[in-house]
Amino acid sequence: MTRKRIFYQAFSASLPVLMGYTAMGMAAGILLAGKIERPDIVFWAFLSSLTSISGALQFAIVNWIDNNMPLIDVALLTLFLNIRYAMYGLSLLEKFKNTGFWRKSYLIWSLTDETFALEAESAIPDKKLNTFYCLCVAALDHLYWVSGVTIGAMAGRFLPFSTEGIDFAMTALFLVVLTDQCREKRNRLPAAIGIICAIAGRVFFSVDNMLIPAMVMMTATFIIFRKTLEKQFEPAEVVK
Can you give the pLDDT at residue 154? Predict the structure, then answer.
């Protein structure tokens, strides 16, 4: 199997990501250009998407800039929003082993939900070709995101766009994912914990200050009840 064929295989596998990333990226770019009026906003949209592949952060950054959020809050929110990638990375340690410093660094940095899914299911027997496949997937997904955000920012900057409702796009996406996940009984307890912690955060803190406490409560609860939650995902024993 040649590298050219591996690339086409990676491109074919990443087509669903292309559709999602360009659509969500354009929404984020339009929102950024519509809310932050700067003549160089297209450049900053390009730079922010180039250096950070995170849909949630790309949407959140608009309010952070608009509200002059303290850097410590930005750092904490970024940590809690993206800490799940550390869990993804643990399952890819063997796959990324001995891939070289620069390749491994890019594979780690570019890890997203969709990229992880494609890389995890890759079963190419040759380790070098498998690494090349993962690099192609990561680079293509990265390109899709940067293109979507940049095109969206250009549209928001030079075309008359109303940004009303666009900031709900990421929330709507997470609600769809949550609804789909809750169809399985074992996923309902983690979802309930998240909802309860969010409500508690809103009760005890203002709207602008509730997110970090709510995410701290969620993380602490998941750690405390880890063993109980893990049992939810253990395969059922076969009754003989």
Answer: 92
Which amino acid, one-letter code, is at 179? Answer: T
Of the given ranges (3-17, 163-177, 190-204, 210-224), which has the lowest mean pLDDT?
A: 163-177
Q: Helix or strand or coil: residue 37?
A: coil
Q: Rounded to whole angstroms, how far apart are CA atoms 30 and 162?
A: 9
**Which residue in this structure is represented by tokens 């509730």?**
210
Q: Is the pLDDT of residue 237 over 60?
A: no
DSSP letters spanning 141-156? HHHHHHHHHHHHHHHH
Distance CA(149)–CA(153), nearest Å, equals 6
The pLDDT score that the predictor gives to residue 170 is: 67
Model confidence over 136-178: pLDDT tens digits? 999 999 999 999 999 999 988 887 767 676 767 667 767 776 7
**Nearest by Cα to 164 from 65, 19, 37, 30:** 30
Extract the tokens encoding 119: 């890389």
Taking alpha carbons only, the member of 85, 30, 89 closest to residue 54 is 85
**Token code pair at residue 201:** 């955060």
As a whole number of angstroms, the distance between CA 131 and CA 137 comes to 10
What is the token pair recorded at 189? 């307890």
Report yes or no: 38 and 165 within 8 Å, Cβ to Cβ: no
